[in-house]
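BUG: 3D viewer hangs when loading the predicted structure for this chain

Environment: internal workstation, default settings.
Expected: structure renders.
Actual: progress bar stalls at 90%.

Input used:
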Amino acid sequence: MARNKVVQVPCDAGLYEKIVAYRDEKGLGKDAAAARDLILFALRILEHKDDAEGLSTRELLETILTYSVKAQHTSSLVYYQVFNDSAVDMESANAKHKDTMRKAEDKVEQLLAGDAS
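Structure tokens produced before the viewer hung:
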């Protein structure tokens, strides 16, 4: 029975700290297990980055973020309309929804640009 190959990779203190943090976060027992998980994850991303039929990982995450933010904004709008005592004017509600979606898209762009405030 053949043994698994061992790959030794020197890493600076910053990289090692990240591996240890991942290991601790995932509850893995050894550095090797954490490194193996991270390498497999990176390889999966690389294997599918040129997949012409699907989205890249970044595009997929951006799409998920967009839908999540829009859903959050929509639920806030629905909550407001349900608990508002006045009757709902559909024209006003549609305009408010479009404005809410624009704000959600702006928020997504803000998050993707790295501004988390």
